[in-house]
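To whoever picks this up:

The parser on our side crashed when reading a file containing two proteins. I've narrowed it down to the boundary between the first structure block and the second sequence. Both blocks are reproduced below exactly, byte for byte. First block:
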Amino acid sequence: HKAKEFSYMGKTLEQIQSMSLEEFSLLAKSRARRAIKRGLDAGFLKVVQDAHVQTKAGKPPAKAMRTHLRHFVIIPQMVGLKFAVHKGNAFETMEIQPEMIGHRLGEYVLTRKRITHGKAGLGSTKSSSAVSK
């Protein structure tokens, strides 16, 4: 059984990585297209492109790039890079996969903890049974 090859809007990963940002924005969905047309953070974009050039040369960046830019659209040049995205109180490291293209960094780093329901303490109200972990 052969694994399905990745494609984004009918294009392979190599094809979209060779495109300019303007060409990629024409393929992207409307929200991502609008963000790209309005301009991505220039400083962060330069860091991403420098890291992409380094990985093509064969030497991956030493550690994950830390960022607070949760709204940054994931572009094809970011695939394979590691980012430490801020989640309010700490940074969470993630590696960019091809399936993440066109989404935002913040979509993959959750800011709230999952709630587990425990027993309410003695003499307490029912609402205090929701305990965040």
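<<boundary where parser fails>>
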Amino acid sequence: MLRSPQIKELRKSGKLQEALTMAAEDLTNLPEDRFAKSNIGWVYYEYLKKYAQEENVIQFSEILHHLTELSLPETDKMLPDNVAWQTGKIIFKEVKKQRIDYTVLYKIIADCMTMHFTKPSDGYSFLLKAFHKVLKPNSHKYIEFINWWNLDNLQEADKNKDVLPNGKEVMSAAEQVLTAYFKAKVPVGSEPIEKEKVLESVAELDKAIEEYPKYLYLIYFKVKMLLAINEKERLLESFLPFAQKKSGEFWVWDNLAEILEDEEDKVTCLCKAVLSGERTENMTSNIHLKLAKYFLSKNMFSEAKWEVLKIVDIKNAESRRIPGDVILLQNQSWFTETESAENNFKFYQNHAENSVELLFPDKRTEHIFITNVNESNGMINFTKENDQLGFFNKDRNRLRFPIRAGDIIKVKFDIFSENAPSKIIVAKRDSKETLLQRNFKIVLGDIRITDKGFGFIDDVFVAPHIILQHNYTNGQQIDGKAIRTFNKKKEQFGWTLL
């Protein structure tokens, strides 16, 4: 007969050794009895609480293993659910230590993966967050664990961003786990790549992208997978939406350089990558190596040498090993016989100028004629080649070059509207003869000033502030330039003196 009440009383009063002895005797007599297993299981649980509090991970692991050896019925989830919280607690404490005994932690995780938990549940999610901290550096074990845990068990709370005590928002648990999981599935190193297996991972990733469209880095891992199996025809469509939103990251341009086929486009991306990686220069060695090889292919030896020396500087600053490819380049005759360029930044800037255009190949390039610039609010009015009218805010579109009435700008619109501010994604000063001839003309004639302070030179309107600024008098001959503008009141185009 089981002594369940006595075991419970001993356990509750803290007499764990006595409770364990009694429960073990009962289990020996009735080895397959579920209640005998439950009795000793709850004693083990009290030990787990004790060792979690004491941060004694060795003893915790041993007791947990004894618990799993009970092979509790799959329907008995109360005990495992409680164990999940204690396991998570000690794991979080262990991963904060300077020296981590991964062998013990791996054993704890392996034992937990034999238990049956309530799914989904808060305790099960807590276990996920804890094990994520341990397994993230080990791709093989991480994939194995996530496949067991099953991402279908993510709860809504797991998908919410966490808020730190200082109020800063950090990536949600779900995004952290999905990012680590699919990163682990990207083929790396010299291991043989099974194309069908990679395509299965891509299909799994597509499902996750559809379910979590705001997790941008998932697209990045899809690109890495498809690059690994040379499926470039599928890459650009997947990668561009991500690249458009993360265009300030150097590795986005490095990846785009791998995807694009045109050599000049590749160089444009690499130059943009270098310029975007100024804050993380220690991570750009591979980009400099690619540029060095490009310069060598063009017999631009001075520029190539500067790239090689830049890599050496980066590695030395980090006290890291010089890559073998770089050492080979240093040992070649051209390197010793060539004087290095002062730097390659001018080259970077010139070639990166058109980089943004590569992100929006589906957007049409257009030329616009600037008809008015309002310095007070930053609003700029323009006319398109088909006489459509529009306006945009210079500051909100981050246009860094000066713009004046009469300028012609080559643009790509993200959003064009005649009734609301347009959004520009690419803009640079340009020329377009047909647009210039249509909207610009030389004026020579006598000014006629009205009683209201404005004037006309034939059909060209002269604003009052221009008359006052130049102290024009009625009948004075004026030699100037005029642009075509739209009169909203008359709903027609006319000419205005600049």
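After patching the parser it read the second block fine. Residues 34-54 form the longest helix (21 residues). Residues 155 and 414 are 36 Å apart (CA to CA).
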